[in-house]
Design brief:
Number of domains: 2
Number of helices: 4
Order of helices and strands: EEHEEEHEHEEEEEEH
Strand order of the largest sheet: 1-2-5-4-3-6
CATH class of the largest domain: Mainly Beta
Distance between the termini: 32 Å
CATH topology of the largest domain: Elongation Factor Tu (Ef-tu), domain 3
Helix content: 10-25%
Number of strands: 12
CATH architecture of the largest domain: Beta Barrel
Structural class: mainly beta
CATH superfamily of the largest domain: RimM
Shape: elongated
Strand content: over 45%
């Protein structure tokens, strides 16, 4: 598993005839990640190509980008479905109590009695309404009253979900 780069988006499709692309962001900070002058790593995690962002604008919450070296609709079509990454070293530290999604995925989730709930397989939603997806089937809000302790270094999250919530998903 490649750990020194972080997924920030996926190319949805081309936009127009000049090689622009529409991106489905996979970050809570799209304005920061998709600025003119930033360099994205384009491709699969094990083989990427650096592409500088030459133009950027947003439409309905999604970035529309012009990347260096992508100058036609045909070139943009070849990028449909391709991942966009940034080096982990380029990420800024977050304020206390906030986490990067990639730091939460893979964490073990335990209840207050130390019972195993499962592992975080994804984090969905926006920065202010994020949900932990546990074992692919349980969605647990990432809020203070439910997530009591998040220790990304120990890869462990302690939760106190509302009674019956986890069973509801698993039944």
């Amino acid at each position: 598993m490649i750990t020194d780069i972080v997924l920030v988006g996926r190319v949805a499709r081309p936009h127009g005839i000049r090689g622009h692309i529409i991106v489905n962001p996979e970050t809570d900070f799209p304005d920061e990640r998709f600025k003119v002058g930033n360099v994205l790593l384009v491709g699969h995690a094990d083989r990427t190509v650096e592409r500088e962002i030459l133009e950027a604008r947003f439409h309905q919450g999604r970035p529309i980008l012009a990347l260096a070296g992508v100058e036609s609709m045909d070139a943009a079509e070849l990028l449909a479905g391709v991942d966009l990454w940034v080096p982990q070293a380029k990420l800024e530290p977050l304020p206390h109590g906030t986490y990067y999604r990639h730091d939460l995925v893979g964490c073990e989730v335990r209840d207050r009695s130390d019972g195993l709930v499962g592992r975080v397989t994804a984090v969905e939603g926006t920065l202010d309404r994020s949900y932990l997806v546990i074992d692919g089937d349980v969605m647990l809000p990432l809020v203070d009253g439910i997530c009591l302790q998040v220790d990304t270094a120990a890869r462990r999250i302690v939760v106190d979900p509302p009674e019956g919530l986890i069973e509801l998903y698993r039944s």
